[in-house]
């Protein structure tokens, strides 16, 4: 029989900032002329029993040629280096991205605890584990929103099309306000994977995924397979519940299960991506996923299960000196607090009737470019219709008519209270490497050594429907993407 697609979001994994990577790891040299590509060439050591995630990647990627062409159109090469006695391979990575991945590896995945992925290696399973740096689903995590990105993953739709443009917003037509506790179907557009799977006659279980409590179409969120969100439920209990589904009679086992873990995102917002608490949170997630995998293996179903572990965005530190204040624009334009729908990482402004959005934007740009507004150069203002098309954030009437795009790590606050703190945020332009995350896949349809370019999270919906061999709803993903990533159904 076909076993479940078990689908997890590992909180929000963050790549971190390149400045934290030490320069003494190895010898750097240019790879191609004066291009900005670089390579580390250092010693290769025998693999230790406690092998790293990237050691596992090395074995998987042995079929790869030394030189490949990436989606950036540049020629790059895989390379090895040794770190704390572990053989490590990075491949096809632009230097800035490479340094961030190295920082992520050093701070989070090599923290003294055995990571779950090395645990897979001794099992000698014929699997593919791909660590891809996947951009947030365009602006799916904008406005510091968890819900927008997570719902984009399960619908394959950008926020402008699935309707959840932020964690909090007001519908300008009806005046109602959406919050993360709003479960009325009219807010949640598109068709989520749990609806699609049920509609195709298969069983579903979903655990705390945003939108799953919305009763819509053929989905009625049965309590046994769709518990109401409760952040206090321990991660161990969530995994135990999922494991229990595999002990049900065969005709009741869900064909699709998805589970949401809040960490390490919750810590990242409080203390930033570089605090030791993040390492501890990742180690805890590792332990939880390790428990899941070992129990599936004991049940004899792990080889046949498809497991996707994915984060929906990265994280960047927001520290002193990176704030902008609308009050500083007072000589050019007044921005009352009542106009502001959100402050950062996307500034959203909805002026009242009778106030021209175009005039507001014009005056704001003049002030920001005046060199007298602190950090003014780090905020770019747009009318919604002029917002960059590649970010797919203008097609909804729910989106404010004025949008401000902040540079990485900058914030807008209504007024300067002289409070200086360091924390973490996400939702900035997905071109920033700190906003990217990981995708790890295991299962019969993940081809060993398959080269996959960076992709948007909206592609995952079609990937899952293809694995389950069911018909999906229309979405913003590319229909052929699953054919490129996956092997044919057996």
TrEMBL record:
PANTHER family, sorted: BIS(5'-ADENOSYL)-TRIPHOSPHATASE, ECTONUCLEOTIDE PYROPHOSPHATASE/PHOSPHODIESTERASE
UniProt GO molecular function: hydrolase activity
Organism: Coptis chinensis
Protein name, entry field: Uncharacterized protein
GO CC, any one term: vacuole
Parts forming coiled coils: none
InterPro entries: Alkaline_phosphatase_core_sf, Phosphodiest/P_Trfase
């Amino acid at each position: 029989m076909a076993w479940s697609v078990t689908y997890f979001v590992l909180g929000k994994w963050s790549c971190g900032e390149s400045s934290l990577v030490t320069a003494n790891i190895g010898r750097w040299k240019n790879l191609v002329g004066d291009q900005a590509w670089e390579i580390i060439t250092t010693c290769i050591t025998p693999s230790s029993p406690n092998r790293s995630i990237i050691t596992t990647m090395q074995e998987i990627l042995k079929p790869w040629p030394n030189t490949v062409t990436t989606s950036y159109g540049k020629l790059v090469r895989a390379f090895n280096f040794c770190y704390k006695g572990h053989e490590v391979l990075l491949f096809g990575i632009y230097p800035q991205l490479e340094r961030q991945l190295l920082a992520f590896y050093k701070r989070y995945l090599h923290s003294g605890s055995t990571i779950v992925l090395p645990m897979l290696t001794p099992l000698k399973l014929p699997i593919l584990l791909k660590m891809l740096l996947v951009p947030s689903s365009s602006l799916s995590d904008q406005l510091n929103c968890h819900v927008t990105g997570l719902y984009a993953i399960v619908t394959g739709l950008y926020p402008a099309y699935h309707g959840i443009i932020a964690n909090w917003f007001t519908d300008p037509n009806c005046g109602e306000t959406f919050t993360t506790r709003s479960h009325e179907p009219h807010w949640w557009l598109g068709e989520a994977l749990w609806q699609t799977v049920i509609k195709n006659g298969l069983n579903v279980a979903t655990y705390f995924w945003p939108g799953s409590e919305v009763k819509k179409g053929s989905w009625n969120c049965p309590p046994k397979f769709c518990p109401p969100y409760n952040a206090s439920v321990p991660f161990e209990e969530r995994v135990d519940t999922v494991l229990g589904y595999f002990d049900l009679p065969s005709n009741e086992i869900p064909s699709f299960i998805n589970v949401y873990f809040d960490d390490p995102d919750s810590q990242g917002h409080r203390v930033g991506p570089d605090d030791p608490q993040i390492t501890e949170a990742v180690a805890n997630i590792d332990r939880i996923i390790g428990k899941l995998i070992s129990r599936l293996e004991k049940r004899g179903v792990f080889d046949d299960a498809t497991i996707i572990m994915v984060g929906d965005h990265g994280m960047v530190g927001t520290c002193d000196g990176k704030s902008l204040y609308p009050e500083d624009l007072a000589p050019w334009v007044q921005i009352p607090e009542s106009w502001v729908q959100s402050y950062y990482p996307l500034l959203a402004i909805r002026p009242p009737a009778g106030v021209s959005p175009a005039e507001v934007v014009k005056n704001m740009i003049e002030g920001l470019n005046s060199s007298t507004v602190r950090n003014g150069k780090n905020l770019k203002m747009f009318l919604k219709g002029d917002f960059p098309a590649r970010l797919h954030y203008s097609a909804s009437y729910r989106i404010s008519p004025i949008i401000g795009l902040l540079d990485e790590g900058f914030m807008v606050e209504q007024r300067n209270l002289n409070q200086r703190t360091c924390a973490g945020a996400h939702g900035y332009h997905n071109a920033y490497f700190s906003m990217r995350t990981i995708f790890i896949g295991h299962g019969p349809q993940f081809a060993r050594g398959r080269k996959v370019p960076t992709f948007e999270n909206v592609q995952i919906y079609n990937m899952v429907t293809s694995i389950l061999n069911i018909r999906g709803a229309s979405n913003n993903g590319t229909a052929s993407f699953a054919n490129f990533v996956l092997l044919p159904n057996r």
